[in-house]
UniProtKB/TrEMBL annotation:
Organism: Modestobacter caceresii
InterPro entries: Glycolipid-bd_prot_put
Name of the molecule in the record: Glycolipid-binding family protein
One Pfam family cited in the UniProt record for this chain: Glycolipid_bind
Upper taxonomic lineage: Bacteria, Bacillati, Actinomycetota, Actinomycetes, Geodermatophilales
Length: 193
């Protein structure tokens, strides 16, 4: 299962859990990708904005993430740097609780579900764990998030996966386009462009 290159720009309307919009730009960089995005939203009565730049290698594993945010808590900036073998520095400090994480998952982003889907390259019927460095939208705190993806069937050119996150007692079926970007994230976001 290989994906085609992502479009130059993609956008999602965030709905139900939050109301907002996300816009992402993709460009080739050093054999991998640079992803620059922004989400503005209101969730549980709190308005926030998160801007991010992700540097990905050719396999879509995150090498670096620079995340800035604004909310009623003020302005924040968090930088995550991969130091290899699933190990991380967060704001320059070693974060051993993130050992084994290959991806950064932004609470504010529907796009970041594309990272493990690309990297894992699962065959139909296969399941894999994909723990991630999870960055909160408000305050930009970073925690380990256990999650898994199971490749279901293809629906024409689109691919379907079962997603599960035990920490949030959440699971759903995600639909991805031929470039591996989520089209429908139930209760979270729907692709607009």
């Amino acid at each position: 299962m290989s994906f085609v290159d992502p479009p130059a720009v993609a956008a999602w309307r965030h709905q139900q859990v939050r109301t907002g919009f996300e816009v992402v730009h993709f460009r080739r960089s050093g054999g991998g990708w640079q992803v620059v995005g922004c989400t503005t939203a209101v969730e549980a009565g709190v308005a926030w904005t998160v801007d991010y730049t992700l540097d990905l290698d050719a396999a879509w594993a995150t090498r670096r993430a620079v995340v800035t945010g604004r909310s009623s808590m003020g302005a924040r900036r968090t930088t995550l740097d991969s130091i290899g073998d699933g190990r991380w520095h967060v704001d320059g400090l070693r974060a051993p609780d993130l050992d084994g994480c290959q991806d950064v998952d932004l609470e504010s982003s529907a796009m970041t579900n594309a990272l493990p889907v690309h990297r894992l390259d699962l065959a139909v019927g296969r399941r894999a764990s994909a723990p991630a460095a999870y960055v909160r939208a408000v305050g930009l705190g970073v925690d380990r998030l256990e999650q898994s993806y199971t490749r279901l069937h293809d629906d024409g050119p689109n691919r379907q996966f079962h997603y599960k996150s035990p920490a949030f007692d959440f699971s759903c079926q995600l639909v991805f386009d031929p470039s591996g970007l989520v089209l429908d994230y139930p209760g979270i976001a729907v692709r607009q462009l």
